[in-house]
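Run log, item B.
One chain of 139 residues. Sequence copied directly from the ordering sheet:
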Amino acid sequence: MITAVDTSVLLDVFGADESFGRLSSEAIRQGLDEGILVACDVVWSEVVAAFSSDKAANNAMYTLGVQFSAVEASAASLAGHMFARYKKGGGDRRRIVPDFLIGSHAIVSADRLLTRDRGYYRQYFHDLIVWDPSLQLGR
């Protein structure tokens, strides 16, 4: 099983988020138990922005067990078409192309997406299996 990981979950773990850190860590461990974890270039870039250096970010990602997985041309094309549909449907500036690249990468290169942004991905990527660790709150 290949699990694409979204930035929100990774930053929960790296930042020891009080609300979601533990749940996101548990989901990452489960994802690794079930297969491999990947992050696309967009997610990787967003994670690097949260660290003091490339080396620190890369070490954190690899230590966590996350592999780099570039967005393929077919995923980039799908993201472009989805973004165009979003804009034609009256979509505002809250969503930008990178959001669509993350979802498209997960559809093309993974079996599911580990993210806390379930509303958006479920709305625009109907065939995407979305795994939200925050749904485990209150268990």
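Observations after the first pass:
- The mean pLDDT is 90.
- The helical segments are 7-14, 21-34, 41-48, 54-64, 73-88, 97-109, 118-124.
Flagged for discussion on Thursday.
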